[in-house]
Amino acid sequence: MSVKTILVSQPKPESEKSPYFDLASKYKIKIDFRPFINVEGVSAREFRDQKVELAKYSAVIFTSKTAVDHFFRIAEETRFKVSDAMKYFCMSEAVAYYLQKYVVYRKRKIFFGKQSIADLADVLKKHKDENFLLPCSDILRQRIPETLEENNIQYTKLVLYRTVASDLSDLEDVKYDMLVFFSPSGIESLLKNFPDFKQNGTKIAAFGPTTANAVKKYNLRLDVHAPQPQAPSMSMAIEQFIKSNKKK
Description:
9 helices, 2 domains, 22% strand, Rossmann fold, alpha/beta, 248 residues, six-stranded mixed beta sheet, five-stranded parallel beta sheet
């Protein structure tokens, strides 16, 4: 079956230069975007129930822009003034630059890794005397705490936001040739919204090993998996799939 319609379980890209738009134009296919999950911040009361005193920490580990937003949100809601001496350790340069939304970048001690927690651990090890805080979601990738513990980084986990399933009821009668997922939560949202979902001829694409494992866990068929050596991005993996199907 050829792929003519694709639903990507993420917000529509803001940039017109997205490879998905190029893909749609090149192969004359329809690509829609719809987040399957939403992020909700915990309340100030839920934060206090965790009994974490922000003033005790000299450094914060940020794994995402979302973590940055909710750390400063809860600080504002609880009237906690973040010290100018606070050190920030970010998973990537993009997350580090995002801090400019909340702090004067050039006047703060900000460190970052290349893209993974393993890269950041190399930086963290040089500052082992710090008291680290890890703002995160209720669903934290296991690799993050494992890496911190393997490197003897002393830290405290603080849940500041949670992932919840979006309401997808309006899609009940809409059919797509391919569904694209980027997290296990997205697949769980699909099945929560449509418990009687039958894959049949629908293709499923998954990004990352944990998402691919979730597809198999729920007895669904994995048709496209990225990243791969020849397809480091999801759009490239989808294009390869479309090309191979055209040859059949």
